[in-house]
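Raw record, unedited: DUF304 domain-containing protein
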Amino acid sequence: MPDVFKSTPDRRPKVTQHKHIPNKEELAAYGHTRNRLAAYCYYPDHVNFVGADSEEKIVLLLRRHAITNIPWIFVSILLLFTPIVAFMFGFLESAPVNFSTVGLIFWYLISFAYIFEQFLSWFFNVYIVTDERVFDVDFLNLVYREITDANIDQIQDVTVRVGSVIRTVFDYGDIIIQTAAQIPQIEFEAVPHPDRVAQVLRELRVEEETEKLEGRVR
């Protein structure tokens, strides 16, 4: 399993930083949590990632809203209960016992593999906002991941897209980030509190521009 959150040494030149440090009230207001399964966390504890600078701080750790898991959870429930229903209605009575046993084991192996893969896809497909960069981490399978990033000062525009009653009720949507980087657009899909995420991104961009004006970044 790829270790998305493990830090590796970075040989890039270090920058002099005087970043904003949130107080307890701000952490509470913006949604700080210690829950490692949270889809939205402001300044998460004990989280790191590949390629992080030693002084780089994670401001937001985002995943798709938990409600987006309902379709595959529903399918998983059907997969788990299908053999039980089949036995209850006698659909497998004519099959040999050995055949039924092997078939049942194989069915549940496939079912649990599907559940495990879907959970890993949700857990490791993350969006990370630091005080220096934004990241889109796409976990495609157990041996392959794709990471897209852009510096905060390369952000040109941040757009919030909600677009349905369900998304409005449960407060989640897409964040489209237009950048001047090699990848011109980074999209955070179905993340919780999109307006709050956009606000944090705009504040970080303003802070980065202020640092440049004050000559604090080399």
